[in-house]
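Hi, here's the filled form for the chain we discussed.

Project: internal
Contact: R.S.
Residues: 107
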Amino acid sequence: MVKRFVIGVTAALLLGGCGRPTVRPVTPETVIVAFGDSLTEGYGATPSESYPAALARLLGCTVINAGVSGERSGEGGRRLPDVLGRYKPDIVVICRKRFNFDSLSSL
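And the returned structure, exactly as it came back:
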């Protein structure tokens, strides 16, 4: 199921590049999900020092910190559909450490 989701998202991104790009401005109503592991969660920092909190201050919109410390990439891949369904974001920022991508083979 997750493998199909990843393939579907990849296909949508590739096909989406076939037309003229459009970029909507970020407004106070914009919802951004920052998705990732400890880098996103802000491990070792205060919540206000995390990059999602800084992004919210800079852009003036809602940024959901969906970072989970210690999460491997495969676990994140399984969690992502639920996060997208719950928050229905306008923008998703994914930040994952490189060294744990080996777990993607379990998808």
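Let me know if anything looks off before we file it.
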